[in-house]
Amino acid sequence: MVRNGLYALRIEMLDGIRGENTGVMVLRDGTIRGGDAFFYYVGSYTAADGRWKGELTNQEHTPTYGARPMFGGKDVGIGFSGTYTDDSAEGEATALAGKRSIRFRATLRLLVAD
Length: 114
Fold this sequence. Notes:
The chain is mainly β. Helices cover 0% and strands 67% of the residues.
């Protein structure tokens, strides 16, 4: 199982879209909670044998005046799959922002274990 704890999150866009972001995520017993300066993430995951997958929603909590948000300021649904170790996890994800799908890679690094 993925270790419960607080993770540093780094996102980099794929498919020629320029952009990256950082934030934090708490993974605990199949649930995801996290955020950054403008958005929060809520979701769930399953994990076994070094592989994990899940889904989450990304919603704005603070308007991004003067900033260019990664998903155009839209609330989006995201599905992901990838791998994990004892102190990290990674995966590729697809966000559905309106009629557009946006792919990105996420890397998580364990900061504090529960």
